[in-house]
């Protein structure tokens, strides 16, 4: 596997772990809601159900968001290379290395550190469309693009 495929699979693993966590949370909330139904009535019961409903709604929103992130990841072609930074690019700079995909944080591949970032992040927006040799300044730190895969 090449570096781009390794980064892609690391991002996919990140998304799938988040997805499993959210689905487990939703299952726990469902279970709690069902056991709340069996408990005694009254204000305390209603408050507990309302809190669980809010938690379920929040988890549902997280689920929808992580599904969108997973869909964005499927748009990446790990075989494709480009002269310009775009979705799926591995960008080597004098400061750090980036994988333009999803916001998955720091990834370690073959003893190198990469930052998986979304093209919508501030640094992602700065890098999109740039080519090798272009200079970029982010938070008063200037760096140059050395390579794009």
Polypeptide structure, described:
- There is one protein chain.
- With 149 residues, the chain is α+β, with helices and mostly antiparallel strands.
- The protein has two domains: 72 residues; 59 residues, no CATH class.
- It contains three helices and six strands.
- It has a six-stranded mixed beta sheet.
- Strand 5 and strand 6 form a beta hairpin.
- The longest helix has 36 residues.
- The radius of gyration is 21 Å and the shape is elongated.
Average of pLDDT: 92
Number of helices: 3
Number of E strands = 6
Describe the strand arrangement of the main beta sheet, using strand numbers.
3-4-2-1-6-5
Radius of gyration: 21 Å
Most strands sheet: 6 strands, mixed
Low-confidence stretches: none
How much strand content do the residues show?
15-25%
Task: Determine the fraction of residues in helical runs and give it as a percent range.
Answer: 40-55%
What is the string of SSEs from the N terminus onward? HHEEEEHEE
Distance between the termini: 14 Å
Overall 3D form: elongated
Structural class: alpha+beta
Task: Tell me the domain tally.
Answer: 2
Structure summarized in a few sentences:
With 149 residues, this protein is α+β, with helices and mostly antiparallel strands. Helices cover 50% and strands 21% of the residues.
């Amino acid at each position: 596997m090449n570096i781009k495929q390794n980064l892609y699979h690391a991002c996919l693993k990140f998304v799938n772990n988040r997805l499993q966590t959210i689905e487990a949370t939703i299952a726990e909330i469902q279970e709690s809601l069902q056991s709340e139904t069996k408990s005694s009535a009254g204000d305390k019961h209603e408050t507990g159900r309302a809190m669980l409903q809010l938690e379920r709604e929040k988890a549902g929103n997280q689920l929808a968001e992580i599904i969108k992130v997973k869909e964005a990841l499927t748009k990446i072609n790990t075989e494709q290379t480009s002269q310009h930074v775009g979705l799926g690019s591995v960008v080597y700079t004098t400061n750090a290395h980036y994988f333009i995909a999803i916001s998955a944080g720091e990834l370690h591949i073959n003893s190198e550190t990469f930052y998986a970032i979304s093209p919508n992040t501030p640094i992602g927006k700065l890098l999109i469309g740039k080519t090798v040799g272009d200079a970029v300044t982010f938070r008063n730190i200037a760096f140059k693009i050395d390579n794009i895969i």
